[in-house]
Design a protein that fits this description.
The complex is a heterodimer. In chain A, strands 2, 4, 5, 9, 10 and 11 form a 6-stranded mixed β-sheet that branches. In chain A, strands 1-3-8-7-6 form a 5-stranded antiparallel β-sheet, with no helix packed on it. By secondary structure, chain A is mainly β. The mean pLDDT of chain A is 94. Chain A is built from no helices and 11 strands. Chain B is mostly beta strands. Chain B is built from no helices and 11 strands. In chain B, the strands form 2 sheets. In chain B, strands 2, 4, 5, 6, 9, 10 and 11 form a 7-stranded mixed β-sheet that branches. A 4-stranded antiparallel β-sheet of chain B has the order 1-3-8-7, with no helix packed on it. In chain B, strand 9 (87-94) and strand 10 (101-102) form a beta hairpin. The model of chain B has no long low-confidence stretch (mean pLDDT 96). The chains are: A mainly beta, B mainly beta. At the A-B interface, strand 4, strand 5 and strand 10 of A face strand 4 and strand 5 of B.
Chain lengths: 112, 111
């Protein structure tokens, strides 16, 4: 089955710096790659996603890149703010199915 | 507005008891999922359903069961609760390959 590895597990940055979180997946048939943000005590919420026919997608300060050949995708957050502090999860569909396999998460701390 | 709700939000039970966590969605989504979240393990899939009368095992299904009698509900049952099942449980739904909408979570403690 699909295996999703996520790094780093914790990341601490200064306000205004950029943050990058990387994920690799094992199933070459995976075709959808979302990123979720989970604030403390809250539910995970989608922040950005990318499909396998696209290499990069941006939404204001966040962007996701996908390298299908290398089977990895990354989340980039620019001009970080304290409210970006949360746990971020990457995920990938298992093969051509509609179920998601999640990475173990990255705890991002943005220091003022 | 469409939503997905879980109940109870918090439950404490004893080892060996049967527990049922409810999940109800008004998105009219065919796909529903149950995940458990534990520190260091992220979100792991327990069971999922692609429609009425359809249920499938996820990666950590032992000790859990689900049933899907209508589109809106996917209750998760722990037949005989164990301390290892102490966790936060999230129900989620989707309309296909796309955004997964999560419920608020149910925190279960098994003593």
């Amino acid at each position: 089955g699909e295996n999703v590895e996520q790094h780093p597990s914790t990341l601490s940055v200064q306000e205004g710096d950029s943050a990058v979180i990387k994920c690799t997946y094992s199933d070459s048939a995976s075709n959808y790659f979302p990123w979720y943000k989970q604030e403390l005590g809250k539910r995970p919420q989608l922040i950005i996603d990318i499909r396998s026919n696209v290499g990069e997608k941006k939404d204001q300060r966040i962007a996701v890149t996908l390298n299908k050949t290398a089977k990895h995708f990354s989340l980039h957050i620019t001009e970080t703010q304290p409210e970006d502090s949360a746990v971020y999860f990457c995920a990938a569909t298992q093969g051509g199915s509609e179920k998601l396999v999640f990475g173990k998460g990255t705890k991002l701390t943005v220091n003022p | 507005d469409a939503e997905i709700t879980q109940s109870p939000r918090h439950k404490i039970t004893e080892t060996g008891r049967q527990v049922t966590l409810a999940c109800h969605q008004t998105w009219n989504h065919n796909n529903m999922f149950w995940y458990r979240q534990d520190l260091g393990h992220g979100l792991r899939l327990i069971h999922y359903s692609y429609g009425v009368q359809d249920t499938n095992k996820g990666e950590v299904s032992d000790g859990y069961s689900v049933s899907r009698s209508n589109t809106e509900d996917l209750p998760l049952t722990l037949e005989s609760a164990a301390s290892s099942q102490t966790s936060v449980y999230f129900c989620a739904s989707s309309g296909g390959v796309g955004e997964l909408f999560f419920g608020e979570g149910s925190r279960l403690t098994v003593l």
